[in-house]
Each structure stands twice: as C-alpha cells, then as structure tokens.
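Entry:
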Amino acid sequence: MNDTTVPPAIRDTSGQDRVLDTGRGRMQRRIAWALGGVVIVAALVFAAPSLQRALSAGSSISASRLVVAEVERGLLVRDIAAEGKVVAAVSPTLYAANAGASTLKVHAGDTVKKGQVLAVIESPELAAKIAQEQSNADAMQADHLRAQVEARQQRAALQSALDNARIDKTAAETELARQQKAFEAGAVPSMQVDRARDSLQKAVIALNQASAGIGLKDDSLKLDVQAKQLAHARQLLLVKDLQRQQTELAVRSPVDGQVGQLFIAERANVAKDAQLLSVIDLSALEVQMQVAESYARDLGIGMPGEISGNGQTWKAKVSAVSPEVVNNEVAARLRFDSDAPGAMPKELRQNQRLSVRVLLDRRDNVLTVRRGSFVDESGGAYAYVVRDGLAVKTPIRLGVRSIDKVEILSGLNVGERIVISGAEAFQGAAQVGISR
C-alpha cells in the first residue's frame, strides 16, 4: 500500500482583515454617546433634591408609623364630654323634731304631695311639758290681773290723800283770811294770824307732796303691772314653741315627689334630730358629672350644655361647680334649661346614666389642626411640617385646645400638613426623612 501525503492547507489572511470605518458609522456612535450623556445628566438633575434630602436628613422614618393632619381654617368648639348621673336638685332628708316612738305612714317609693303626713312621733314627755308650761302661763296671767287690781287700789288711796290735801289747803286759806279780818278789826292778836299763815304753808307742802307722790307711785305701779304682763307673754311664747314642736311630731312632706330611703323601722324609738326618711322631688332633676381638674378652671355657672340619653337630647346649663378637687376631678351639676321645649323630662330616674356635653368656647374662622400627641410632646412649641418627603421641625404657637382640635396662632398656614402623632421617633431632629 502506497502512502499518500496530503500537504497542509495554506492559511489565508481573512482573520487579519478589518472593515474600515466609514464617516456615517462614526457619526452614529457619537450621537449615541451624546444621548446617553444627556440621559445621565437629566437623571442626576432630577435625583439631586432626593439625594440632597437623603444627605441632609440624619435618619428616615416609615410613613406608616406617623399620623399626619392638614391645617385648616374654620370653626373651633371647646367642650367637655363626660358621663353623668341623674340626681334630684331637691332631695330633703326629714328629721325627728323630738324623741319618741315613730309611726311611718308611707313606704319607700310612694308618691307623696306637699304637706302630706309621712310619719308621726309620739312624745309623752313633750305633752307633759306643754301642760306644765301652760299651767305656769295661767298662773302668771292671774298674777298680772292681781297686779292690775292692786295698782287700782293703791292709786285710789293716793288720790284720796291728794284730795284731802287740797281740802286742807283750802281750809287753811279760809282760816288765814278770817284771822286777818279779825286782826284788822282788833278782835284777835297778830299771833293768831301768824299761826293761820303757818297752817296754810303746811297745807301747801302736804298738797305738793301728795301730788308728787301719786305721780311716782303711779309710775311704779305701771312698771309692776307691765313686768307681770311681760312675764305672762314670755310664758305664752314658750307654750307656743312647745306646741309648735308637738305639731312637728307629725312629719310632713316639704315637696311633691316620691319617698326615697327609710332610715328607721316601724314603731322604732328615735332620738331627737334622728334621720327618718328622704323625699325626692322628681320635678327638679339635675345631672352631675365629674370633670378633670385641668378643665375645671374653665367651667362657670350658666355655661350652656347638652344632656343626651334615651334617644333624646335636652338643653341644659351649668348650675353648680364644686370648689373641692377629689381624685383629680371636680364635680359639676347641670340643670335642664327651663326655657327650652321639653325641659323637664318625665322618664328619667334617680342615678340614671346620661351623656353630658358642656360648651366652653366657640371660635369661628381660626386656624386649627386635629389634636394629637405632638401637643403634649412638644408642649405646643414646635411641630414637624411634612414637605417633599421630609419632616421639618417648625416653631409654632398654640391657642385654645378642644377635645379633637387645637388652635394655631402662628407658625403654620392653611393646607400645610404636620405630624400629629409618632414624632417622638424623630428625637428632636431638625429634619427627618419619611420613607414610604
């Protein structure tokens, strides 16, 4: 077999060949590079604010952790809402006027009228005392009458003495005149005239004394009689007061209403001033509510309010505010407005629970924002305004605050959005990024 050798193939130069660029190809590449550069520059321009915010914000907080509200202009109503209970404005408790055995005439829950006898107390001691004092009054009346009789007798005796003195004076004058005529006729000596003159002077002195004595004695007798009369009158007043106490042993209802609580049992012996029972006047109901101490200083008597319950709403006014703080709360009472229709509901009951709302203030056309934790966290000194994905710390000044809104005095404008809750995560930073 003959070997046949195949000569190796001769390489060509095609691998080293190269297509020469034409002018049109170079132009297309330049345009492509230019367009790419424009796109990159545009992207950098549009991303610059985001990059700047990301670089300026020290941290980033998710928007889901924040509550944002918008600043608005409108009505701000400050009010207090709480739960209250119905109480009777007039609920007198009746007491025993004297000690004794009690007899109840009514039961708890009975409807009573004003003046109706509710209980009777038997007091033998009071009855005996009345009889004794009445006897003393009768005795004093007899003393008064006796003093009047004695005064008339003594006055008559004094008048008799005065009349005798006048007669003696007249007789002395007549005797003196007779002696003087006799002396002038030479029938008697001058001594007789002098004696008659002395007798006249004595008669004049006796008359003056009798006249003065009857005046003084008359005044004394009048004072004695008046003293007896006053003593009798004083004793009659004592008897009258005891009779009043006896009348009060029949305990009567001071108002129209219902018997509330009975504090004694039937036929029980009670002491003086012991509690007997209470009467509730259901025609004069009020609602008592507990108000937080922070709102209590804004409450005032006469403020308007609303009472809701049983599917109805009644107008009311604040009638009383307690001056005492108990457990950080103040008790206040609202009275149904007597001028409003249906002012006194008939279907309410003592201690029934109702919803109460008191209007503290009403302001129109003011800047407001929904109330949130930022009010307490910052003390109203600043808020975080949301702008372009950033929460910017902004100084503000707050005004009055209601349950759901707060007034903005300065620092914010209508339409701005602020973080009202969750800003504690910002830790007081000047700017914080907000991520979606």
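Residues 1-6, 51-57 have pLDDT under 50 and may be disordered.
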